[in-house]
């Protein structure tokens, strides 16, 4: 068992790793810092339940990943949009795309996001890390604490589910 007092030793060891994981998911520095803080709060509460001290890093990484995903979901529900610097710089500039194409594109992305939201949570988590955040299978496996072949299988099945949902919509 790990003593909760040891968290002060763990913070400097894992902060950077957890921040990078959180930032790769949230794409927002402040949210990533909040995720890391929340992860360590969860760690303090659950520290006594960890039996294998060698797996603390992996456990913290998975906790940070899931916490970051939860934060992003909460932000989406607020109808707020996380904006990167490039997006902020382009606000106010005219778009060359016509309005009809823009509306079609937005509707299509909404359909994709709805379909992703209907996926099995394991597939959804891996799929979002791969597609939206551009992580490699090995990185996803390390973050989630699963085997790379499991990641590949889940990505394959997630894509297959997505394809089937769209095929069903077309055929209906």
Key terms:
single chain, 172 residues, mainly alpha, Rna Polymerase Sigma Factor, Chain: A, Arc Repressor Mutant, subunit A, 2 domains, 74% helix
Word description of this protein:
The protein folds into two domains: 1-83, Rna Polymerase Sigma Factor, Chain: A (Orthogonal Bundle); 96-172, Orthogonal Bundle (Arc Repressor Mutant, subunit A), CATH 1.10.10. The N and C termini lie far apart (55 Å). Helix 7 packs across helix 8. It has eight helices and no strands. 74% of the residues lie in helices and 0% in strands. The longest helix is centred in the C-terminal third of the chain and has 24 residues, at 148-171. The model has no long low-confidence stretch (mean pLDDT 81). The protein has helices at 7-26, 29-46, 56-77, 85-90, 99-117, 121-131, 137-144, 148-171. The protein has 172 residues and is mainly α.
Write the layout of secondary structure elements.
Elements: H1 7-26, H2 29-46, H3 56-77, H4 85-90, H5 99-117, H6 121-131, H7 137-144, H8 148-171
Helix pairs in contact: 1-2, 1-3, 2-3, 6-8, 7-8
């Amino acid at each position: 068992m790990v003593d909760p007092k040891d968290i002060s030793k763990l913070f400097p060891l894992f902060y950077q790793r957890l921040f990078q994981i959180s930032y790769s998911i949230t794409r927002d520095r402040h949210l990533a810092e909040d995720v890391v803080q929340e992860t360590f709060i969860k760690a303090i509460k659950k520290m006594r339940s960890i039996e294998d001290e060698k797996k603390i890093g992996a456990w913290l990484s998975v906790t940070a990943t899931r916490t970051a995903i939860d934060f992003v979901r909460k932000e989406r529900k607020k109808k707020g949009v996380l904006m990167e610097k490039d997006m902020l710089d382009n606000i106010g500039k005219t778009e060359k795309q016509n309005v009809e194409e823009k509306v079609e594109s937005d509707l299509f992305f909404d359909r994709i996001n709805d379909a992703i939201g209907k996926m099995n949570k394991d597939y959804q988590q891996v799929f979002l890390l791969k597609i939206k955040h551009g992580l490699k299978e090995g990185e996803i496996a390390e973050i989630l604490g699963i085997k790379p072949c499991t990641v590949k299988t889940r990505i394959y099945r997630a894509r297959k589910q997505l394809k089937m949902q769209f095929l069903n919509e077309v055929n209906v």
